[in-house]
Amino acid sequence: MKGILKIYHPEETLKYHIESTYCKAVYSNTKHFLEVEIITDDSLDHVDDDSLQYNFPQLSLDVVEFPIDDAEIAGKKFLIDETEESYTEVDLFDDKDAYLYNSQLSFEKNREDELQLFWSGTIDDFYTGSQEPIPFKLKCHFKPDVVEVDED
Q1: Edge-to-edge order in the sheet of strand 3-8
Q2: Mean per-residue pLDDT for 112-128?
Q3: Burial level of 45, CB count in 10 A (0-12/13-18/19+)?
Q4: How many CB atoms lie within 10 A of CB 33?
Q5: Tell me: the pLDDT tens digits for 55-97?
Q6: What letter would DSSP give residue 46?
């Protein structure tokens, strides 16, 4: 497991396991940009049948072309203000839409010198349709997957 996403809905805390992560500082036209993609696992083994989460088994949270000062992101915090331009996206893998607000991303290195992300903010309540965004917290790492190939 690469991490966990918790959405603090008033009725229950929804937990998603992180399946894949991607993070890169991109240099384009003399500027640096942050790109992040977090995709949750679509497994529902850990979810009760009557859970709100049962209707949304997978999510993708993204940061797209967010301007940063340089390519080094370890040890830095970024506040993403969505008032003028949209740098974050949520894909619910269905027909519903949701948006992120007040995103704060904090990057650190762990004991194994792997880059970790702590992401908090609020998300539209796509579970019940309430007009009030609900808080979320995400913690994940960007350790490369080791692909083992069996030789014949």
Answers
A1: 77-80, 100-109, 115-123, 134-141, 3-8, 13-28, 31-40, 60-68, 88-91
A2: 91
A3: exposed
A4: 18
A5: 666 889 999 999 999 989 999 999 997 766 789 999 887 767 8
A6: T
Q: Is the dihedral of CA 80, 83, 86, 89 positive or negative?
A: positive
Separation of alpha carbons 35 and 105, rounded Å: 12
- Determine the length of the chain: 152
User: Is residue 30 pLDDT above 90, yes or no?
Assistant: no
Identify the burial level of 117 via C-beta atoms within 10 angstroms of its C-beta, where 0-12 means exposed, 13-18 middle and 19 or more buried. buried
Phi, psi of 12 (to 5 degrees): -170, 155
CA 32 to chain centre: 20
Confidence (pTM): 0.84
- Residues of the chain with pLDDT > 90, as a percent, come to 41
Q: What is residue 53's predicted lDDT score, i.e. its pLDDT?
A: 59
Q: Give SS3 for 104.
A: strand
Phi, psi of 20 (to 5 degrees): -145, 150
Helix intervals (H) in 31-141: none
